[in-house]
C-alpha cells in the first residue's frame, strides 16, 4: 500500500476515534441533563443509544440500571447490573446496587448473595455489612447479624442506621439498656430517620416508658411513612392518645392536622384519622397527601363509597397518582364492578408499568369476566417483574 494512502487512513482513523469520544461525551452529558431534571425515561433512551455504540462499556449498563431503579423498574435494573457484572465481575458497587434491587422485589436470598460478593471485593464498605446484617436478622440469625452490624459501625462510626439496627438486635437478644443507648446515638447522628424513632419506641415500651414511646411515635408520624412493621398495643396509650387528639391546635395549619391524622393511622385509629385529614383538606384543598391518606383510612374502615370518592378527588389533584387509581380499582374489584376495575388498573399501569401487583389485580378482574388470554398475559408480566417473591398467585391462575 502507498505510504501516503496509509497515512491518510491512519489520520482518518485517528480523527474518527476522536469524533466518537466527543460524541460519547455529548451523549453522556445529555443523559445527565435529563436525569438532573428527573426525566429518567429520556435519559434511558440516550443510554440505549450509547450501549448500541459501546456495547462493551460495562459502566453504561450500571448507569442505565440506576436510572431504571428511579422508575421502580427493579427487574430491568437487575438485568442491567447483571450484564455489567458479566463484563466486569470485580466492580463491587454493582453487587450492592443489584442486591438492593433484589430486596425491592422481595428476592432476599439473592440480595444476601450479592452482599456476600460485595464484601468479598470491598471489605471496607460499611453499608454492605449493615444490609447483610439486617437480612440475617430477618432470618433470625441474630448473633451473626450482630457481628455484621458491629463491623458496619467499626468501619463508619457515624452510620446512624447501623446503630438503629444494632439496637433492634440487642433488644431481641435481651440487652435492653444497651439497645436504648444505641437508639440515642442513632437519633443524635441523624434525627430524620423514621425507623430509629420506631425502634426506640418499641424499646421504651418494653421498659414500660409509654409516655416516652408515645413521643417517639409522634416524631415518627411527623417524619415519614416507615410504619409497615409497627405493631402497637393500643391499650397502653388510650389516655395519651385522647389527650393528644383533644389538644387544641392554635393555628389553622393544615400540616399539623395532617400529622395528627398520621399518628392516629399509626395506632390504627382510622375513624379519628379521617377527621383530622378532613380538617387538613378543609384548610388546604390542595393537600394531596391528606386527601389520599383520608381515602386509605376509609378503605381500612371498609367505607368503600367514601374512599372511592376521596381517591377520585386525589386524582383530580394529581392525575399521575398511580396508587390512587390502583386503590380505586381495588374498591371496584370488591364491588364486583370488574370492567370499571380494569379501567382503573389500566390507568395505574399507564403511569407506573413496573409494579407487579397492578398486573396481578388486573388479571383477577379479567378472569372474572372471562378475559382469560389477557389475564394470563398480565400474570406473565407479573412474574417478569418479580411479583412471585412478594405476592402469592391465586389458585387456578395461568401457569
Report on the structure:
By secondary structure, the chain is mostly helical. Helices cover 75% and strands 0% of the residues. It has 21 helices and no strands. Helix 1 packs antiparallel against helix 2. The longest helix has 34 residues, at 3-36. The chain is globular.
The first-to-last residue Cα distance is 64 Å
- Radius of gyration of CA atoms, rounded to a whole number: 26 Å
Record field, number of beta strands: 0
General shape: globular
Number of helices: 21
Mean pLDDT: 91
H-E order: HHHHHHHHHHHHHHHHHHHHH
The main pleated sheet reads as: none
**Quaternary structure state of the chains depicted:** single chain
Return the structural class.
Answer: mainly alpha
Flag low-confidence runs: 1-19
Please report which band the strand proportion falls in: under 5%, 5-15%, 15-25%, 25-35%, 35-45% or over 45%: under 5%
Q: Helix proportion of residues, in percent?
A: over 70%
In short:
By secondary structure, this protein is an all-alpha fold.
What's the helix and strand layout?
Blueprint: H1 3-36, H2 40-53, H3 58-70, H4 74-87, H5 92-105, H6 108-121, H7 126-138, H8 142-155, H9 160-172, H10 176-189, H11 194-206, H12 210-223, H13 238-246, H14 254-266, H15 270-283, H16 288-300, H17 304-317, H18 322-334, H19 338-351, H20 356-368, H21 372-384
